[in-house]
């Protein structure tokens, strides 16, 4: 698909449409949608900003590429003066006191926020069912889950309710719902985009990620949001990715894939056969393909959840109703804390907090948490060795197709295993992009750290190959 951002930009410049009519059209679609993607509409703000864009066009002033482009925001990002609920009961009335760096950069570029989008509460889930706003319904088949945790963001893009959306990816939360809804979703290199103003789930793997319908739109949005931020010490300065640099696959010679992912008993037979067919198409284009050995998927999942649960238990300890959220008073302070958290957190969030506290507790931290840290280091080292042999790693996004709504809630363990092919790249802090080709839930393209450009380059090549 062509760049929607560029198409709309040209329509605005040529006065074929007005920004106000464009925003009104998108807001109407969001109001009428039956996929449960909306937590709150930002209609007043959006229309005010649209009027300013129209006034600028009327004066003949130059319009920036993102000016007037409507977008959605996963409801875990701060946007000053708007509700930021994390789809949770605890924060259902919380209003942001400031704006996240990544979102502010988009606002500074003139993009127009339309909606805070439904998601798994605090990012805890892989289906967008763990939410007080009702399960997000898949864009292709509403009987199936929208994926998670950025389900609302992916569905809004797939249904053209937003031109692009900003999700958050901790262990696959942009890539998996993008695959479930046949759109592009990027987890950039960890630290490329500031996390300031993103509600922390697991701080060591949390990433700000764009979701869109074309590689070019992903590139445009990534460039705007990237850069060093003094408010996030993990960020670094990165070079702009130019359009001409990703227009061909020059420099990419060897593609790798993890054979144990494909030989796993857990993988759906159709996803397996489609993936192998995609590999054959890549070979036919003259690329060398190499089978790689990697950690078993169950080791990746257990390592990821060990560390993620520990970090979320720590990060959510501040939410006790004192400074944030709906406080429930009881007979003393300790009981007030306990009942506030018990009544306001989802079952999945409580499961992860309990698991995290167990992992960090005396007598278990050495045996479990420190072992998880050691495995993470080993996983990163394995990736470093792999990328000495290959330029790109290609993999399925998920081992299975989207489940029916309700099934994941009955079997949390199966939900965790749906992340088997995404969490490893999160632990390695690598740039990884879901593309809507190759299998029913897409393909993942991964490169070594700071090689986000290479990922977009190969994605551009594959869109005309598979």
From TrEMBL:
<dbReference type="InterPro" id="IPR023631">
    <property type="entry name" value="Amidase_dom"/>
</dbReference>
<dbReference type="Pfam" id="PF01425">
    <property type="entry name" value="Amidase"/>
</dbReference>
<dbReference type="InterPro" id="IPR000120">
    <property type="entry name" value="Amidase"/>
</dbReference>
<protein>
    <submittedName>
        <fullName>Aspartyl/glutamyl-tRNA amidotransferase subunit A</fullName>
    </submittedName>
</protein>
<feature type="domain" description="Amidase">
    <location>
        <begin position="24"/>
        <end position="456"/>
    </location>
</feature>
<dbReference type="InterPro" id="IPR020556">
    <property type="entry name" value="Amidase_CS"/>
</dbReference>
<dbReference type="InterPro" id="IPR036928">
    <property type="entry name" value="AS_sf"/>
</dbReference>
């Amino acid at each position: 698909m062509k760049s929607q951002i560029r198409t709309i930009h040209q329509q605005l410049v040529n006065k074929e449409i007005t920004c106000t009519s464009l925003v009104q059209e998108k807001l109407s679609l969001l109001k009428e949608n039956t996929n449960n993607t909306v937590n709150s509409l930002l209609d007043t703000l959006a229309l005010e900003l649209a009027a300013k864009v129209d006034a600028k066009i009327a004066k003949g002033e130059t319009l920036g590429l993102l000016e007037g482009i409507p977008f959605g925001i996963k409801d875990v990002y701060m946007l000053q003066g708007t509700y930021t609920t994390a789809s949770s009961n605890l924060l259902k009335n919380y209003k942001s006191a400031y704006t996240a760096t990544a979102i502010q950069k988009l606002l500074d570029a003139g993009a127009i926020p339309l909606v805070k989008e439904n998601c798994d509460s605090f990012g805890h889930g892989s289906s967008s069912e763990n939410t007080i706003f009702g399960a997000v319904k898949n864009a292709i088949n509403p009987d199936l889950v929208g994926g998670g945790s950025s389900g609302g963001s992916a569905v809004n893009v797939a249904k053209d309710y937003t031109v692009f959306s900003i999700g958050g990816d901790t262990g696959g939360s942009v890539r998996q719902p993008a695959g479930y809804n046949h759109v592009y979703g990027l987890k950039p290199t960890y630290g490329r985009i500031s996390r300031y103003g993103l509600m922390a789930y697991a701080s060591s793997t949390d990433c700000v990620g764009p979701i869109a319908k074309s590689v070019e739109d992903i590139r445009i949005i990534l460039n705007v949001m990237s850069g060093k931020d003094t408010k996030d010490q993990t960020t670094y300065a990165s070079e702009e990715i130019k359009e001409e640099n990703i227009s061909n696959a020059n420099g990419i010679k060897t593609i790798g894939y993890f054979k144990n992912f494909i030989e796993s008993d857990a993988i759906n037979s159709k996803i397996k056969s489609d993936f192998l067919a995609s590999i054959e198409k890549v070979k036919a284009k003259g690329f060398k393909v190499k089978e790689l050995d990697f950690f078993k998927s169950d080791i990746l999942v257990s390592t990821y959840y060990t560390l993620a649960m520990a970090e979320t238990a720590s990060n959510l300890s501040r939410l006790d109703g004192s400074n944030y959220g709906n406080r429930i008073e009881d007979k003393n302070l300790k009981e007030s804390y306990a009942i506030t958290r018990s009544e306001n957190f989802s079952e999945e969030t409580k499961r992860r907090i309990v698991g995290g506290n167990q992992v960090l507790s005396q007598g278990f931290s050495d045996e479990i948490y420190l072992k998880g840290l050691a495995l993470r280091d080993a996983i990163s080292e394995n990736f470093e060795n792999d990328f000495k042999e290959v330029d790109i790693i290609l993999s399925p996004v998920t081992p299975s197709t989207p489940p029916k709504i309700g099934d994941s809630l009955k079997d949390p363990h199966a939900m965790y295993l749906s992340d088997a092919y995404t969490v490893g790249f999160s632990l390695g802090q690598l740039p990884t992009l879901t593309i809507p080709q190759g299998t029913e839930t897409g393909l993942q393209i991964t490169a070594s750290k700071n090689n986000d450009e290479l990922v977009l380059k190969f994605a551009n090549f594959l869109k005309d190959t598979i």
